[in-house]
Design a protein that fits this description.
Blueprint lengths: L10 H4 L7 H15 L11 H12 L4 H14 L3 H5 L3 H8 L6 H16 L8 H5 L6 H12 L8 H12 L10 H10 L4 H17 L18 H4 L19 H13 L5 E2 H5 L5 H13 L4 E3 L3 E3 L4
Antiparallel strand pairs: 1-3, 2-3
Protein backbone atom coordinates (compact mmCIF):
# COMPACT_ATOMS: atom_id res chain seq x y z
CA UNK A 1 0.00 0.00 0.00
CA UNK A 2 1.04 3.59 -0.53
CA UNK A 3 2.39 5.39 2.52
CA UNK A 4 0.21 8.21 3.87
CA UNK A 5 3.06 9.90 5.66
CA UNK A 6 4.03 12.69 3.30
CA UNK A 7 5.00 16.07 4.73
CA UNK A 8 2.05 18.20 5.86
CA UNK A 9 0.94 20.59 3.09
CA UNK A 10 1.50 24.30 3.45
CA UNK A 11 -1.46 26.31 4.82
CA UNK A 12 -2.27 27.57 1.31
CA UNK A 13 -2.88 23.99 0.15
CA UNK A 14 -5.09 23.06 3.10
CA UNK A 15 -8.15 25.14 2.25
CA UNK A 16 -9.69 23.00 -0.55
CA UNK A 17 -9.72 19.85 1.57
CA UNK A 18 -10.25 21.39 5.00
CA UNK A 19 -12.82 24.24 4.90
CA UNK A 20 -12.76 24.44 8.70
CA UNK A 21 -9.33 25.58 9.97
CA UNK A 22 -7.73 22.52 11.62
CA UNK A 23 -6.89 24.44 14.80
CA UNK A 24 -10.60 25.05 15.38
CA UNK A 25 -11.19 21.30 15.55
CA UNK A 26 -8.18 20.19 17.59
CA UNK A 27 -8.92 21.90 20.88
CA UNK A 28 -12.58 20.85 21.28
CA UNK A 29 -11.98 17.27 20.18
CA UNK A 30 -8.92 16.80 22.38
CA UNK A 31 -10.70 18.32 25.38
CA UNK A 32 -13.66 16.00 24.78
CA UNK A 33 -11.31 13.02 24.57
CA UNK A 34 -9.68 13.96 27.87
CA UNK A 35 -13.09 13.70 29.54
CA UNK A 36 -14.71 10.83 27.67
CA UNK A 37 -12.03 8.45 26.42
CA UNK A 38 -12.74 4.85 27.35
CA UNK A 39 -10.28 3.10 29.66
CA UNK A 40 -9.20 0.35 27.26
CA UNK A 41 -6.32 -2.00 28.09
CA UNK A 42 -4.37 -1.23 24.92
CA UNK A 43 -4.37 2.45 25.82
CA UNK A 44 -2.63 1.87 29.13
CA UNK A 45 1.15 2.37 29.32
CA UNK A 46 1.72 -1.24 30.33
CA UNK A 47 0.24 -2.47 27.05
CA UNK A 48 3.37 -1.50 25.15
CA UNK A 49 3.75 -1.63 21.39
CA UNK A 50 2.91 -5.33 21.21
CA UNK A 51 -0.36 -4.81 23.06
CA UNK A 52 -1.24 -1.98 20.68
CA UNK A 53 -0.42 -4.13 17.66
CA UNK A 54 -2.52 -7.05 18.92
CA UNK A 55 -5.46 -4.73 19.54
CA UNK A 56 -5.22 -3.23 16.06
CA UNK A 57 -5.35 -6.64 14.42
CA UNK A 58 -8.30 -7.71 16.56
CA UNK A 59 -10.31 -4.50 16.21
CA UNK A 60 -10.45 -4.59 12.43
CA UNK A 61 -14.16 -5.08 11.60
CA UNK A 62 -14.82 -6.28 15.16
CA UNK A 63 -16.42 -4.28 18.01
CA UNK A 64 -14.54 -3.55 21.22
CA UNK A 65 -16.91 -5.57 23.40
CA UNK A 66 -16.05 -8.75 21.51
CA UNK A 67 -12.34 -8.02 21.41
CA UNK A 68 -11.78 -7.32 25.11
CA UNK A 69 -11.92 -10.89 26.53
CA UNK A 70 -9.91 -12.39 23.67
CA UNK A 71 -7.32 -9.61 23.92
CA UNK A 72 -6.84 -10.20 27.65
CA UNK A 73 -6.42 -13.96 27.16
CA UNK A 74 -4.06 -13.45 24.23
CA UNK A 75 -1.71 -11.11 26.11
CA UNK A 76 -1.75 -13.33 29.19
CA UNK A 77 -0.64 -16.27 27.05
CA UNK A 78 1.68 -14.40 24.67
CA UNK A 79 2.94 -11.24 26.39
CA UNK A 80 5.69 -10.75 23.79
CA UNK A 81 5.95 -11.43 20.06
CA UNK A 82 8.52 -14.16 20.65
CA UNK A 83 6.03 -16.05 22.81
CA UNK A 84 3.54 -16.22 19.96
CA UNK A 85 6.23 -16.90 17.37
CA UNK A 86 7.30 -20.00 19.30
CA UNK A 87 3.85 -21.55 18.88
CA UNK A 88 2.31 -23.18 15.81
CA UNK A 89 0.18 -20.79 13.73
CA UNK A 90 -2.79 -23.05 14.39
CA UNK A 91 -2.65 -22.08 18.05
CA UNK A 92 -3.15 -18.45 17.04
CA UNK A 93 -6.22 -19.50 15.05
CA UNK A 94 -7.48 -21.49 18.03
CA UNK A 95 -7.02 -18.58 20.44
CA UNK A 96 -8.69 -16.21 17.99
CA UNK A 97 -11.98 -17.85 18.91
CA UNK A 98 -15.06 -16.28 17.37
CA UNK A 99 -13.62 -12.87 16.52
CA UNK A 100 -14.18 -13.53 12.83
CA UNK A 101 -11.90 -13.07 9.83
CA UNK A 102 -9.44 -15.62 11.27
CA UNK A 103 -6.80 -14.95 8.64
CA UNK A 104 -5.95 -12.00 10.87
CA UNK A 105 -4.69 -14.53 13.43
CA UNK A 106 -2.32 -16.06 10.88
CA UNK A 107 -1.10 -12.61 9.85
CA UNK A 108 -0.50 -11.60 13.45
CA UNK A 109 1.45 -14.83 14.00
CA UNK A 110 3.52 -14.14 10.88
CA UNK A 111 4.20 -10.60 12.11
CA UNK A 112 5.32 -11.98 15.47
CA UNK A 113 7.74 -14.34 13.74
CA UNK A 114 9.17 -11.51 11.65
CA UNK A 115 9.51 -9.23 14.69
CA UNK A 116 11.34 -11.99 16.53
CA UNK A 117 13.68 -12.75 13.63
CA UNK A 118 14.31 -9.23 12.30
CA UNK A 119 13.94 -6.96 15.32
CA UNK A 120 15.13 -8.99 18.31
CA UNK A 121 11.56 -9.46 19.52
CA UNK A 122 10.70 -5.75 19.79
CA UNK A 123 7.97 -4.16 17.71
CA UNK A 124 9.86 -1.67 15.50
CA UNK A 125 9.35 2.06 15.96
CA UNK A 126 10.07 2.98 12.36
CA UNK A 127 6.97 3.32 10.18
CA UNK A 128 8.69 1.79 7.17
CA UNK A 129 9.82 -1.22 9.18
CA UNK A 130 6.30 -1.67 10.51
CA UNK A 131 4.90 -1.51 6.99
CA UNK A 132 7.38 -4.19 5.90
CA UNK A 133 6.04 -6.72 8.43
CA UNK A 134 3.71 -9.41 7.04
CA UNK A 135 0.07 -8.63 7.58
CA UNK A 136 0.74 -4.93 8.25
CA UNK A 137 -0.88 -2.47 5.89
CA UNK A 138 -1.04 1.29 5.67
CA UNK A 139 -3.56 1.74 8.46
CA UNK A 140 -1.99 -0.66 10.99
CA UNK A 141 1.54 0.69 10.51
CA UNK A 142 0.33 4.26 11.10
CA UNK A 143 -1.79 3.21 14.10
CA UNK A 144 1.01 1.34 15.85
CA UNK A 145 3.53 4.12 15.20
CA UNK A 146 1.06 6.70 16.50
CA UNK A 147 -0.59 4.93 19.43
CA UNK A 148 2.42 2.94 20.66
CA UNK A 149 5.21 5.42 19.95
CA UNK A 150 3.47 8.80 19.89
CA UNK A 151 4.48 9.60 16.33
CA UNK A 152 2.78 11.96 13.91
CA UNK A 153 0.84 9.93 11.34
CA UNK A 154 -2.57 10.15 9.74
CA UNK A 155 -4.54 7.19 11.09
CA UNK A 156 -7.57 6.54 8.92
CA UNK A 157 -9.99 3.91 10.14
CA UNK A 158 -13.72 3.84 9.36
CA UNK A 159 -14.60 6.01 12.36
CA UNK A 160 -12.03 8.69 11.56
CA UNK A 161 -13.02 8.77 7.90
CA UNK A 162 -16.66 9.30 8.87
CA UNK A 163 -15.83 12.14 11.27
CA UNK A 164 -13.70 13.89 8.67
CA UNK A 165 -16.28 13.36 5.92
CA UNK A 166 -18.96 15.03 7.99
CA UNK A 167 -17.03 17.71 9.85
CA UNK A 168 -14.73 18.83 7.04
CA UNK A 169 -16.34 17.92 3.71
CA UNK A 170 -20.04 18.03 4.56
CA UNK A 171 -21.10 14.55 3.45
CA UNK A 172 -22.78 11.88 5.54
CA UNK A 173 -20.43 9.00 4.71
CA UNK A 174 -16.95 8.64 3.25
CA UNK A 175 -16.38 6.64 0.05
CA UNK A 176 -16.46 2.88 0.31
CA UNK A 177 -12.67 2.76 -0.17
CA UNK A 178 -10.13 5.25 1.15
CA UNK A 179 -9.24 7.86 -1.47
CA UNK A 180 -6.24 10.08 -2.10
CA UNK A 181 -8.39 13.09 -1.20
CA UNK A 182 -9.14 11.58 2.21
CA UNK A 183 -5.45 11.04 2.84
CA UNK A 184 -4.69 14.63 1.90
CA UNK A 185 -7.43 15.83 4.22
CA UNK A 186 -6.16 13.65 7.09
CA UNK A 187 -2.66 15.07 6.67
CA UNK A 188 -4.02 18.60 6.50
CA UNK A 189 -5.87 18.11 9.77
CA UNK A 190 -2.87 16.73 11.68
CA UNK A 191 -1.53 18.98 14.45
CA UNK A 192 2.09 19.97 13.92
CA UNK A 193 3.22 18.79 17.35
CA UNK A 194 3.99 15.07 17.35
CA UNK A 195 2.45 14.25 20.74
CA UNK A 196 -0.64 16.32 19.97
CA UNK A 197 -0.98 14.63 16.57
CA UNK A 198 -0.89 11.20 18.22
CA UNK A 199 -3.56 12.27 20.68
CA UNK A 200 -5.64 13.73 17.83
CA UNK A 201 -5.54 10.39 16.01
CA UNK A 202 -6.94 8.58 19.04
CA UNK A 203 -9.46 11.34 19.83
CA UNK A 204 -10.96 11.58 16.35
CA UNK A 205 -11.28 7.80 16.26
CA UNK A 206 -13.04 7.76 19.63
CA UNK A 207 -15.39 10.53 18.54
CA UNK A 208 -16.48 8.43 15.57
CA UNK A 209 -16.90 5.34 17.72
CA UNK A 210 -18.97 6.94 20.48
CA UNK A 211 -20.71 10.04 19.08
CA UNK A 212 -20.43 10.49 15.33
CA UNK A 213 -21.59 6.95 14.64
CA UNK A 214 -22.75 5.52 11.33
CA UNK A 215 -26.37 5.60 12.50
CA UNK A 216 -28.07 7.73 15.15
CA UNK A 217 -25.24 10.24 15.49
CA UNK A 218 -25.52 12.28 18.70
CA UNK A 219 -24.78 15.82 17.61
CA UNK A 220 -25.86 17.12 21.02
CA UNK A 221 -22.78 15.47 22.53
CA UNK A 222 -20.38 16.38 19.74
CA UNK A 223 -17.70 18.94 20.66
CA UNK A 224 -17.52 20.26 17.09
CA UNK A 225 -21.20 20.22 16.15
CA UNK A 226 -21.23 24.01 15.81
CA UNK A 227 -18.62 23.85 13.06
CA UNK A 228 -19.51 20.53 11.40
CA UNK A 229 -19.98 21.12 7.67
CA UNK A 230 -22.52 18.31 7.31
CA UNK A 231 -24.69 19.51 10.19
CA UNK A 232 -24.48 23.14 9.07
CA UNK A 233 -25.62 22.06 5.59
CA UNK A 234 -28.74 20.47 7.07
CA UNK A 235 -27.42 16.90 7.13
CA UNK A 236 -27.93 16.12 3.43
CA UNK A 237 -28.61 12.42 2.82
CA UNK A 238 -25.93 10.20 1.34
CA UNK A 239 -26.12 10.30 -2.47
CA UNK A 240 -23.08 8.20 -3.35
CA UNK A 241 -22.83 4.48 -4.10
CA UNK A 242 -25.00 2.29 -1.84
CA UNK A 243 -23.47 1.52 1.53
CA UNK A 244 -22.16 -2.01 1.68
CA UNK A 245 -24.06 -4.06 4.22
CA UNK A 246 -22.53 -7.07 5.93
CA UNK A 247 -24.50 -10.30 5.83
CA UNK A 248 -23.55 -13.46 7.63
CA UNK A 249 -26.39 -15.98 7.92
CA UNK A 250 -26.20 -18.61 5.21
CA UNK A 251 -22.94 -17.33 3.75
CA UNK A 252 -19.68 -19.19 3.23
CA UNK A 253 -18.32 -17.11 6.12
CA UNK A 254 -20.83 -18.74 8.45
CA UNK A 255 -19.93 -22.21 7.19
CA UNK A 256 -16.22 -21.49 7.57
CA UNK A 257 -16.83 -20.32 11.12
CA UNK A 258 -18.64 -23.53 12.02
CA UNK A 259 -15.94 -25.70 10.51
CA UNK A 260 -13.21 -23.81 12.36
CA UNK A 261 -15.16 -24.07 15.62
CA UNK A 262 -14.98 -27.87 15.42
CA UNK A 263 -11.24 -27.78 14.73
CA UNK A 264 -10.54 -25.26 17.50
CA UNK A 265 -12.27 -27.44 20.07
CA UNK A 266 -10.13 -30.49 19.30
CA UNK A 267 -6.44 -30.91 19.99
CA UNK A 268 -6.43 -34.01 17.77
CA UNK A 269 -7.05 -34.20 14.02
CA UNK A 270 -10.73 -34.15 13.13
CA UNK A 271 -12.42 -36.63 10.81
CA UNK A 272 -14.29 -35.49 7.72
CA UNK A 273 -17.53 -36.86 9.18
CA UNK A 274 -17.34 -34.45 12.14
CA UNK A 275 -16.98 -31.52 9.75
CA UNK A 276 -19.79 -32.76 7.52
CA UNK A 277 -22.15 -32.65 10.50
CA UNK A 278 -21.97 -28.86 10.90
CA UNK A 279 -23.66 -27.92 7.59
CA UNK A 280 -26.23 -29.81 5.54
CA UNK A 281 -25.52 -28.40 2.08
CA UNK A 282 -22.57 -30.44 0.75
CA UNK A 283 -21.46 -28.18 -2.10
CA UNK A 284 -21.25 -25.05 0.05
CA UNK A 285 -19.63 -27.01 2.87
CA UNK A 286 -16.95 -28.40 0.54
CA UNK A 287 -16.34 -24.96 -0.94
CA UNK A 288 -15.92 -23.45 2.52
CA UNK A 289 -13.53 -26.20 3.62
CA UNK A 290 -11.48 -25.87 0.42
CA UNK A 291 -11.28 -22.12 1.07
CA UNK A 292 -10.00 -22.68 4.60
CA UNK A 293 -7.31 -25.02 3.27
CA UNK A 294 -6.33 -22.55 0.53
CA UNK A 295 -6.08 -19.75 3.11
CA UNK A 296 -3.74 -21.81 5.29
CA UNK A 297 -6.24 -21.97 8.15
CA UNK A 298 -6.77 -25.73 7.92
CA UNK A 299 -4.28 -28.47 7.13
CA UNK A 300 -5.55 -31.65 5.43
CA UNK A 301 -4.00 -34.97 6.48
CA UNK A 302 -4.12 -38.47 5.10
CA UNK A 303 -7.19 -40.54 5.85
CA UNK A 304 -9.68 -37.71 5.56
CA UNK A 305 -8.45 -35.91 8.67
CA UNK A 306 -8.03 -32.19 9.22
CA UNK A 307 -6.31 -29.99 11.84
CA UNK A 308 -5.29 -26.42 12.47
CA UNK A 309 -1.94 -25.64 10.82
CA UNK A 310 1.33 -26.53 12.53
CA UNK A 311 3.57 -24.54 10.19
Amino acid sequence: MTSIDDPTPSPASVAPDAPVPPAELHGPVLAWFDRHARDLPWRRPEAGAWGVMVSEFMLQQTPVVRVLPVYEQWLARWPRPADLAAEAPGEAVRAWGRLGYPRRALRLHAAAVAITERHHGDVPRDHGQLLALPGIGEYTAAAVASFAYGQRHAVLDTNVRRVFARAATGVQYPPNATTAAERRLARALLPDDEARASRWAAASMELGALVCTAKNEDCGRCPIADRCAWRLAGKPAHDGPPRRGQTYAGTDRQVRGRLLAVLRESTDPVAQAALDAVWDEPVQRARALDGLVADGLVEPLDGGLYRLPLS
